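Let us work through a complete example step by step.
Step 1: write down the sequence.
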Amino acid sequence: MRDGSSSKPGSRPRLALLVAALAALTGCHLVAGYTGSAGQPGDGGPRDAPVLPPGDGQKPASDAGKPKLDLPKPTLTWRKMVSPKKSNFYDVLPLSKTDVFVAGESGTLLHYNGNSKQQLTQVMSGTKWSLRALTPYGTGKVLAVGLYGTIITCAAGGKGTCQTAYTGISNKVSFWGAWCSAADRCLVTGYDSSTATTARIFGLYSSGKYTSPCEKNSYILGRRLLGVAGLSAGDAVTVGDGARIVRLNSSGCQPVNHTAAQGVLNDVFAFSPTDVWIVGVKATTPSSSDATVLRYDGKKVTRLQTSLTEDLKGVWGSSPTNVFVVGRGGTIGHYDGSQWRKMASGSGEYLFAVHGTGPNNVFVVGANNALLHYH
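Step 2: predict the structure and record it as tokens.
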């Protein structure tokens, strides 16, 4: 060559053949037009880097750094349940998430087994009278009490027909509250429309016997006793008309005198003997600002300030920092340990009772087929 180069003619074709052979061995594909000339297309610079098509030795892209898909968590809310019949429901008792009883008028007794469709089934109560309160009874049973002296026991799981537990009680007596200790000893409270004493307290025993303690105490003469809650095996609290609070134990009836409320106290729930919650209405005739919430520490009764306005019928909590109250106009109130808030229930009915198995599994029942499940 005239430039004095030592390259021999034909050396470039041989170089191209060599590069092609190497490409075939390594699986690389070179861009068209490769010549090997420096600074020219095909010089091996960034512009002409080998292209690796997918599947030809190219590693799949790593997932590192890619945004992860966060699935939405289920939202806790009140959902309506499905009843096999229309009724007013007065109490609810969940023995577990899959064993829930609901009591109502005209002997209505329903059972929920935890199904996802929120459907309840009917239990054969064996009575035509309204059932007002439910409580666990011994092992594998539920005690239900109601109007006209009705006291029945039913098998857990809603199986079979309920049985009459006690006879000989006047049909003038109506029961509104019930609580049993682990020893199958129970207290049921209510009133007697045929006597001047009015308030009735029955001590029930698994042997089928019962007593009527302290009914002539002047503190409860002429008063209805509505709710009852156990503090320990031999200690309970009951509440009722005239803002009455009565401690029931081996010493008999002990009035709990206080000035924290007036009117009717409808329900009571106890975390311990020193932490008892009570709800009601401050006047005998409901008005627009009648919510009453009391707390009893075993010695003193204190009224709690709330943002709720409607009169209240039921109270339950999984802990002192997770308390639910229910009442008129679909009211559901929640206390988180520092403040109260009104929850959206989706119902405008009078709600009578609340009970749960934990903070995220709560049931509420009320008038006109109101059945709600918080989960």
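Step 3: interpret the result. Confidence is low (pLDDT under 50) at residues 1-8, 30-52.
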